[in-house]
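Exercise 3.2. Students should predict the tertiary structure of the chain below and write it as structure tokens, then compare their answer with the key that follows.

Predict this chain's 3D structure.
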Amino acid sequence: MTKNEMKTLLAAQQGELDAVLMYKKLADTVKDPRDKETFLRLAAEEGRHARVFAGLTNKVLKPKKALSVAVPLLYRVIGKKRLYPIIAKSEYGAVDTYKPVAERFPEIESVKNDEKRHGDTVTALLGK
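Answer key:
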């Protein structure tokens, strides 16, 4: 594994861990029960993703709390119609980030596909 690959994998692992906390806190904040259920499911899936990356990096990381504080606050301030597209864009961005490493590490392919689905799922929450 190259230094660059390890750097990408560690950043991905950290991002997935941070997303677990973020989605759990967002689930505690949102008003719509279907949104809450969706965010709890996404948190669980992001946890699985973090474990995939941990299996590759052999590192134990701790989640950072910044997103779990900022995103629920943004929900209260700007509302879901403006926040959810930002979250979806981040999920879609992960797809592009994971593409190069997924070619080298096939176990990341399912994570990459999940991120696209997560973006679609968050976007769909606006269509209700």
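Discussion points: Residues 3-127 form a domain with the Ferritin fold (CATH 1.20.1260.10). The radius of gyration is 14 Å.
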